[in-house]
Amino acid sequence: MDTSSRFNKRNFQKFEKFVREYCERHGKKIIIKPTKHLRANGVKYGGCCDGNSMQVASKNPLFENIFVHEFSHLTQAVEEIDLWYDYGDIWEPLAENRISIASWDEFMKVIALERDCERRALKFIRKFNLCSEEDYALKANTYLYYYQYVFLTKNWNQKKSIYNCPEVNALMPTKLLPMSTFKKIDMKIMEAFFKYLKK
Fold it and tell me: Is the pTM of this model over 0.85?
């Protein structure tokens, strides 16, 4: 389900201008790489933010979604929110196959930070009328539930987009779910991820 084409191009240009001005004001960098994916710790992804810069792969089919998401992370860093500094340690353990039941609290920290990021992204989408809030919220919920799947399988899938699974999409609400929802693993959604990603 590639909804990147549903972004309002003109409004996205206005948003991009706002982002560039914001970054200039706060001494942050925007790095756009002409690739489909970025890589770190053996994981492929569409974008990242380290607090000083945001990087986005421009050839990724979800470029606009990722751009909004990574900028939302940058605002967390600028505002120095507690969640930004209390980020869960999951990437090295994932790369080194050291995920265990004891990792759950770290995954919860990651989900909390990412959910706050998605909440911010939806505010920008609303403010700039960038795309369907429902489409974005569905993807955001999928992304947050995916962390539960990664916790269970100890693996970040590299082969398929998690957003292209009709069975998962059918189970996803189109409003951003509260953090309390993610504290309990939804096995019906996990099963839908498993069937799709293991094909």
Answer: yes
